[in-house]
Amino acid sequence: MKKIERVGFVIKPHAPDIEKILAELIQYFEKKGMECLLEDEAAQKLKKDKGIPREELPEKVDLLVVLGGDGTLLSIAHLTARKNVPVLGVNLGSLGFLTEVPLDEVYLTIDAFLEGNEKIVSPRRMLEATTKGKVYYCLNDVVINKGALARMIQCKIWIDTKEIATLRSDGLIISTPTGSTAYSLAAGGPIIQPYIPAIVISPICPHTLSSRPMIISSDSTIKVQLLTAGEEVYLTLDGQRGDLMEKGDVVEVKRSDIELRLISSPKRNYFDLLQEKLGWGER
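Above: the chain's sequence. Below: its structure in token form.
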């Protein structure tokens, strides 16, 4: 494991007690001889000099600590993965599948990681989406969906050059196993263990009952073309970034070669998380 010399902090600014939690963690790392770098909002919370723009932080640190919820982590996951920087997500929200480490286990988790416990580092493969000459990386999902006042949209779908369907629906979710517990799950998709090499395709409110969620090999490439004109249709990436789509636009999605190294608590595994967050398996 690479020696940790610089630790970066990204925060959800309105999380409860964020100033206290942030200050205590900085003190903890500094006592271990590590330099702490803060994004702009974190620096403001502690009334320090100007911090570092969030998008520039991953290239300057050896470890990134996210204090907040899954949305906070998703906002920077694509940048952090490209720099191969491990991420510790500390849950200050209510659910938190990605920011899964609770406050009462954070120091135990940090110590285990710094001592070289690689078993708690979970590699999460990402998706690569290409459209209109731009390439995006996503940890959870690539979503095509209609605007609030738009009517049903129509998309043509190919898998590995074979046309498989023309879908009429409110949209389409293409998700990683990591993202299977996010929007895809709300749309009726399955829960998939993060290590399984798969991609999930989940229609959003399809017009026909036969259009069900589908799991395909992560070696496959998915191509989706928008056939609908005159409606507001959006391409959304991890619920954080996106752009308007027009009739004829094509999005190609495949497994990326990059991974996010996500640090988890040594006191729990993925199935503990499912029971804790979703009540899975309970009566």
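The longest strand covers residues 250-263.
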